[in-house]
Amino acid sequence: MNSDFQPVPDPVQTTGTMAGRRNRRRQSGSWAVRSNFSRMEREFGTGALGSGAVATAVMTRPGGGPLPPVSDVKPLVESDVLGKVGVLTLIAIGVGGLSFAFPIPIGFALVCVVVALGLGVWATFRPRAARVLAPAFAATEGLALGVISKLYDTQSHGVVPLAVVLTVAVFVGVLIAYRTRLVRVTNRFISMTIVAGFALLAVMLAVILGLSLPGIGSSATGLIVFGVVYLIVAILDLFVDFEMVNRAALAGVPAEAEWYAAFSIFLAVVMLYLGLLRLLAGARR
After folding, report:
1. ∠ at Cα 11 (9, 12), nearest 5°?
2. Predicted TM-score (pTM) above 0.85
3. Which of 3, 11, 67, 213 has the fewest other C-beta atoms within 10 Å?
4. Domain boundaries along the sequence of the chain
5. HSE-up of 44 (CA within 13 Å, CB side)?
């Protein structure tokens, strides 16, 4: 007998193993796909489906076969997340309306921007605190947005109400496109959105540092170009956030994660409004 003989792997078994590997990769996705969802799953668990819940029971069918575990943990519901997004939006509009109507120093608005940034980072890395941090973020961000909106309205009268209406219209349009699967959010879609977001952040930092970039400036054309890019990234973020909420609901993430999910969507709504505001202001110059 030849001692160098090596058994040939069964092609069916090998194919099945490779297919299983591909399926696992497809389900888990890239780092960009896992980042936000994994944070939710790690922080809140998936107890609403019975896995890891404090009080679960295994029921049996009449024939003796087990049914999926039953949990008394309230699951995350997509409609409830959207309701909380509405609450955060109303807070921002209410506080922003006050800072829009009454004179607020620019310096104080800048302080609110810094505070909102700190609250946003805190909520991102401490999802369980989003129940408190998200409304606080909406209030401070709303105050800053009111001052920013006032500045745009001074240069282009009537642009703020139009931006608000268009923000609501685009949000509803994106939600309908997602729900009807007119736009399918794949892992590659999410990865490309993450890359686009980082690219936009790099451009914004370059502008803040005073670097000159082609097509980006204070001219009408520069406002329009940057507004369009900002708007596109905001819309892509909305699609990704809706997919994150959908995956969380399917995975059985408990309801206490709804404020964190609403906070993520609200960030995209703020981006959407700012992009439309800049785009409309540039078009009216």
Report:
1. 120
2. no
3. 3
4. 78-283
5. 33
